Amino acid sequence: MSQTSNRVDVGIVGGGPAGLMTALLLKRRGISAAVVERRSHGEIRRTQRAGILEAPTVDMLVEAEVGSRVLTDGHEHEGTVLSFDGVQHRIDFQELVGRSVWLYPQNEVFHDLATAWEREGGQIHWSVQEVGVHGVDSDQPSITFLDAQGQAGRIEADLIVGADGSRSMCRRLIPEDVRTDYFTTYPFAWFGILCDAPPTAPELIYANSEVGFALISQRNESVQRMYFQCDPETKPADWSDAAIFDHIQQVLGGPDAVNLKRGPIIEKTVLPFRSYVCDPMTFGRLVLAGDAGHTVPPTGAKGLNLAFSDVRALVPRVEEFLTGLRQAAEAEADAPASTAPLERYSRTTLDRVWKAQNFSYWATNLLHRQPGENEFAQRRRRGEFDAITGSVHGQAYFADSYTGWSAPSPN
Ligand SMILES: Cc1cc2nc3c(=O)[nH]c(=O)nc-3n(C[C@H](O)[C@H](O)[C@H](O)COP(=O)(O)OP(=O)(O)OC[C@H]3O[C@@H](n4cnc5c(N)ncnc54)[C@H](O)[C@@H]3O)c2cc1C
């Protein structure tokens, strides 16, 4: 079969937020990149995932010149509500730590990034199949694939970025005797719905009750996103719309009961939970970014934000690596180009990742009920919840972690 081949500085596997933001920021530094993406543009645009963006994530979208829709269409949230057995406590982010978060759905983030990349003539191959990454332990790595028309393609590059999400095939190219996989699973999942209804509340409500957890979120003035805790084996079709709303209403019941705004449910999904870290996030001419290197449960709203902070830390290190490569070539040096900048990226990024892992794990266990837990566990959790909400220091810990820590240096 004939093969279309081309050469760029950096080949990127995965056209999600991590892959596209990497491509755009590399271009801003005069570094060429090509992206291969397994799904179609339309399919990714329709996938509902993240909603909460930290301030540095919003800044990156604006600074990367992907457009200002995040500022015009996104909603600034200066706080959030934690509810326990129907008693609400507002965590005032601005008052506690002087920061906000923005509600702007991931599919819009994706749309903005993809539009900017394509508008600027960036190379992207949608709906590819049989993606292979080769030679990451050599100085001639490449990506091969079948394009949407079934035509074989090949991208030759100096470096490959694996931004291929939580089931990453790229990370498996880091040999097992080099890579350590750290992970934990959870005995529950989220049942997520989208429904045609106006907002139930102006800010997110994270609620814990004797029947488990629920999250009331928003999408826009007429579409709402909500989740409740369920067994990972739950089949969405087994739940009627009425049963879903009744259950969430029960979680929200109590002294500060909120009346859910109901409407036709237009999407139902079950999302399993997992925490995962790959260490190191680089090997030879391969480097990982985003969910490919680490996955967090969605409770702390950290995954997309972490993916962006990876990219912010990665791009200067890629430039440094490529500069070293060019200088070595000009000097006709025999020694292989130093991958030290990429190793530095991995080390510094993992420090941040573990902070986010901790917050996501902690918030998940604080806000969910373990199946079959005893009275001691429930009362202990209540004590932990009161310790957070009843003290300005506890509230500040939540606010500081939720709104995100300062961004990695852009240099
Ligand atoms: C319900 C839910 C709510 C969430 N809420 C939040 C939130 O509020 N805030 C937050 O920050 N995060 C949140 N997240 C996490 C966030 O969605 C992810 O962390 C984010 O998508 C990571 O971006 P990424 O680019 O690394 O990976 P992805 O978005 O998964 O992109 C990877 C891309 O690679 C492609 N791909 C995979 N394999 C291949 C291959 N072999 N070849 C080519 N392409 C490939 C995939 O099709 C995909 O498009 C949430 C997640 C879920 C599920």
Automatic annotation (TrEMBL):
The keyword Oxidoreductase applies. Residues 7-327 form the FAD-binding domain. SUPFAM superfamilies: FAD-linked reductases, C-terminal domain, FAD/NAD(P)-binding domain. GO terms for molecular function: FAD binding; monooxygenase activity. The keyword NAD applies. Keywords: Monooxygenase, NAD, Oxidoreductase. InterPro entries: FAD-bd (IPR002938), FAD/NAD-bd_sf (IPR036188), PheA/TfdB_FAD_monoxygenase (IPR050631). It holds the Pfam family FAD_binding_3. NCBIfam families: PRK08243.1 (NF006091). This is 4-hydroxybenzoate 3-monooxygenase. It comes from Nesterenkonia sphaerica. The lineage of its organism: Bacteria, Bacillati, Actinomycetota, Actinomycetes, Micrococcales.
